[in-house]
């Protein structure tokens, strides 16, 4: 191998390594992030209204300044009873919390499920926050996504 071809080969190798390092450096911090657990923990009657308790557990190392859910509430017949935007942020990193909200004019026994239709906002463009969430329920009314 001549001196010139050796430098060319070394240059290609270093160029390839630099490209690989640049690709790794551009991967967002949240790419391998732990999930955000969202649990419908409890429903309670409040007169003619139903009060819902969500337990949110951000297991990741990245905080969310905003986390706004698009929720669709279904009645026992499977008919959409209500749609609402619920802001459950901010969420600190590696922190569990509870958010409470009322469903005015809807009785808890009339509900069958709540769908997390989308995450309207989660503070970072390009992040798929629906995929990041894991949902569960403790009672008869199911939380799904």
UniProtKB/TrEMBL annotation:
Q: What is this protein called?
A: Tat pathway signal sequence domain protein
């Amino acid at each position: 191998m001549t001196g010139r071809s050796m430098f060319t080969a070394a240059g290609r190798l270093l160029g390839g390594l630099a490209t690989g390092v640049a690709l790794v450096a551009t991967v967002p911090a949240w790419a391998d992030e732990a999930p955000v657990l969202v649990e419908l923990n409890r429903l309670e009657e409040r007169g003619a209204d139903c009060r819902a308790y969500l337990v949110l557990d951000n297991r990741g190392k990245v905080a969310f300044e905003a986390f706004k859910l698009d929720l669709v509430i279904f009645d026992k017949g499977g008919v959409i009873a209500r749609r609402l935007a619920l802001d459950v942020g901010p969420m600190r990193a590696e922190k569990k919390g509870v958010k409470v909200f009322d469903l005015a004019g809807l009785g808890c026994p009339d509900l069958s499920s709540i769908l997390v239709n989308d995450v309207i906002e989660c503070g970072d463009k390009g992040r798929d926050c629906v995929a990041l969430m894991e949902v569960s329920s403790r009672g008869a009314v199911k939380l799904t996504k």
